[in-house]
Amino acid sequence: MKTIGVDFRSGGPDSTVPTGRCIIAVTPDAQRTMNTFLGISTQLAFADLDEGLIASGAILYLEGYLFDRDEAKDAFRKAAAVAHAHGRVVSLTLSDSFCVDRHRADFQALVRDEIDLLFANEDELKSLYETTDFDEAVQLLRRDCHIAAVTRSEKGSVVVTRDDVHTIPAAPVSNVVDTTGAGDLFAAGFLRGLTQGKDLTSCARIGAIAAAEVISHVGPRPLVSLVSLLPDDLA
Question: Which residue numbers delimit the Carbohydrate kinase PfkB domain (predicted)?
């Protein structure tokens, strides 16, 4: 991680609780099923966070998988408060529809009160608002969140704002092999565009290109430089 410029501050090892791990089973249709043990990550608390790092980063990215315990929920809100106090953008990915089901009211309050930019897939968004109708979920989302990017697999994505909804097509993929990491890479590309000052549609296009690369092979890590895949208007 360090070789690609990631400053990973884990706080040091703790021998009392195991490290999280995940077994991912990928079926021939490229869909994946995750058997996850979150391990020590479930113990996340605000004391584990570096307030100076949050204050200095352009965007705070919160991972919904960690939103189970009350201490973690408190950490999310306090981290968002630190970021906002320093004029930073706070983003959240819902991560998993089952997690949303378990904590729907708390997620709704977090999105409404603290989140500037929400990432979700179609199923997670429907779960958030307890509806089977995607368009209804989008309208409710416009009420609660300033900006959201919602992925819809081969249908592409939609960028939702208070005033409008933009549809962005998926980037073409000749052979989908493994969908593991598609949402993460979409978010990474979107945030890269945002930090580069791109408009929201361009951000979603970058996200689509990044996601297309990672689903074209086994494993969630890109095999090429994603920047090299961008056309001139997005680079």
Answer: 2-221
